[in-house]
Amino acid sequence: MSVRETLPRSGSSAVEETQPLDLEGVDSQDERTARLDTGDERTQVQPVPAPPADAAERERRRREREKALGTRRKNTEPEPVAVAPKPKRTTDKFLGSLGLLLLRLVAAGIIGIHGYAKAMDIGSVQQMLNNTIIPEPVIMSYVLAASEVAIALALVLGLLTRLAGLGLAAIGIGALVFVKWVQNPFTGNTLSGELELLLGAVGLLFLCVGAGGASVDAAFRRRRAAAKA
């Protein structure tokens, strides 16, 4: 294809024909080159590759490229971890709950009777505390009587059982240290303070294991677990 152009020459009215402009198509549709020759100047248009048609085409090309290179796309998502169900506490099973319930009722009966007796005869309690190194015998007598009654109620209901066990252990061990075992605890063939020793041990048991399944504490614990789930 040729195109002729006419340009006016300065200082002359003649019209001179310039060299023809040749445009030639090359090779393929994806690579197109146009060359413009005017005298000594040469301009060349570089081929521009056509962009992928859409995202699917780009993904297809990427897979072909990875397949050719023998590479795989790494999976960055963490594998799901199976969470094992939390095992049921032994103390929440039938026999454990029944045993702790019976022990709570027996301990509550003993400590409750002692607390009621102290409240009815507070003068004898004050006189007993006067013979020890415990300060403020009058105040401590009322505190001791009220504490024993409160511990008995807590053990019956199974409410704040660990705290009640701590109080029961403190009362039993305190009675041994400040009253029963001030002198030689062995009188003849017997050991003084057997009841207080037993109550102290039972209190430590409740402090360690709690009230068991048949208690208010266990009901609160199950409700919290259901709320979290």
From TrEMBL:
InterPro entries in alphabetical order: DoxX, DoxX-like_oxidoreductase
Compositionally biased tracts (Basic and acidic residues): 29-43, 55-77
Region (Disordered) location: 1-87
Subcellular location field: Cell membrane
One CC-aspect GO term: plasma membrane
Transmembrane annotation, as ranges: 94-117, 137-156, 163-182, 197-220
Primary subcellular site in the record, as a coarse category: membrane
The protein's name in its UniProt record: DoxX family protein
Source organism: Enemella evansiae
Alphabetical keyword list: Cell membrane, Membrane, Transmembrane, Transmembrane helix
Recorded family membership: Belongs to the DoxX family.
Topology of the protein relative to the lipid bilayer: Multi-pass membrane protein
Pfam families: DoxX (PF07681)
